What does this fold into?
Amino acid sequence: MSDCLFCKIIAGEIPADVVYENDKVLAFRDINAQAPTHVLVIPKVHIATIEDIQPEQASIMGDLFLAAQAVAKVDGLSEAGYRTVMNCQEGAGQSVFHIHLHVIGGRPLSWPPG
Ligand code: AMP
It folds into this structure.
């Protein structure tokens, strides 16, 4: 999608600090990191929100979590642990309308989140 920030990152039109990539997903560091590790994992296909995922795209969610696993390995968090979050719609804090899995770790994380 031409006016989507994350599609532009996938296309290489906007720079990103890439941590992991395969043919389905791209993972890059959040520009406003909330923890020592704060990486966004996005599908290379444009999907605006969780609400827009079609049944035939279900495997993309698995691809995102496998990439989160790879990101954790890169940042040494596989044993220590990390949090994955996907905000859906503005009311839940979504500000970029191309689905993305936040991978957050490297500091103590409280629960429940604020
Ligand atoms: P959300 O609020 O869940 O939609 O998350 C969007 C995230 O994208 C925020 O944490 C932003 O800091 C992050 N973000 C926005 N623009 C960029 C960018 N150009 N590169 C990396 N992360 C970005």
